[in-house]
Amino acid sequence: MRIDVVSIFPEYLAALDLSLIGKARQDGLLDLNVHDLRDFTTDRHRTVDDTPYGGGAGMVMKAEPWAQALGSVAEAGTGDGVTPDAETRPVLIVPSPAGAVFTQAMAYELAEEKHLVFACGRYEGIDERVLEWADERFDVRPVSLGDYVLNGGEVAVLAMVEAIGRLVPGVVGNPESLVEESHSDGLLEYPVYTKPSSWRDRNVPDILLSGNHGKIAQWRREQQLQRTAARRPDLLEKFDVSQLTKADKAALASMGYEVTKDRILPLG
């Protein structure tokens, strides 16, 4: 997978050289490139912003530097001088509080792409015409980390690149570790423990020491349901009930939930 990130603070993305993502870059699993937007300006002050039309506070990022930067990375992804076509055009992700919320399902979807480009906006955002222009050669997707506002897109890009990159085959050493994570099946992950079995008068649940893998799997599933009900009941409301076993339904009933034909509903 090729990933390009355009920012006015390229040094902000230095963390992508660390941990599993950094190792994946070294191993050639991720071709990750960070570009300074100011390198695509033409004036001696390397200006990337100007005042907004219509008035208002703040500054807006200028269109031409972004068009030059995005055009350059789009061509780099397909070969020198080659204009991306409908089959090869990259996905352009624009971090924005006005975008679709980033989810684990979206991370899995994006991990299947060959070329991702991230546009890190700042100030009041990027001139809207850039997105209109980019739609001719990119699959443009404004994406939000959540219902809050950051100073710029760099923090969001760090989070998204890690979430997406770790799903690329070979990046995580044991792919089975991805299967039972929070949100992988619509529920939160069960609690985990390691040695010693007793620590400061707190003991690991006996079931995990039993060696009975069937009962351990059942206990973990019940813990997923309990944790999701306690911390993220909204996930239960959207959960696909066709995935529930009889044991799951019994566990939910003991927690005060009713499973209907198509929904999980709290009783009372």
UniProtKB/TrEMBL annotation:
Any single Gene Ontology cellular-component annotation: cytosol
Domain tRNA methyltransferase TRMD/TRM10-type: 1-238
Main location per the UniProt record: cytoplasm
GO biological process, one term: tRNA N1-guanine methylation
Protein origin, superkingdom: Bacteria
Gene Ontology MF annotations: tRNA (guanine(37)-N1)-methyltransferase activity
Compartments reported by the entry: Cytoplasm
Catalytic activity: guanosine(37) in tRNA + S-adenosyl-L-methionine = N(1)-methylguanosine(37) in tRNA + S-adenosyl-L-homocysteine + H(+)
Membrane spanning stretches: none
Residue ranges that the Swiss-Prot or TrEMBL entry lists as coiled coil: none
Ligand binding (S-adenosyl-L-methionine): 121, 145-150
UniProt KW Methyltransferase keyword: yes
EC number: 2.1.1.228
Alphabetized UniProt keyword annotations: Cytoplasm, Methyltransferase, S-adenosyl-L-methionine, Transferase, tRNA processing
Subunit structure comment from the entry: Homodimer.
Record's function text: Specifically methylates guanosine-37 in various tRNAs.
UniProt-recorded name of the protein: tRNA (guanine-N(1)-)-methyltransferase
Species this protein is from: Arthrobacter sunyaminii
Lineage: Bacteria, Bacillati, Actinomycetota, Actinomycetes, Micrococcales
Recorded name of the encoding gene: trmD
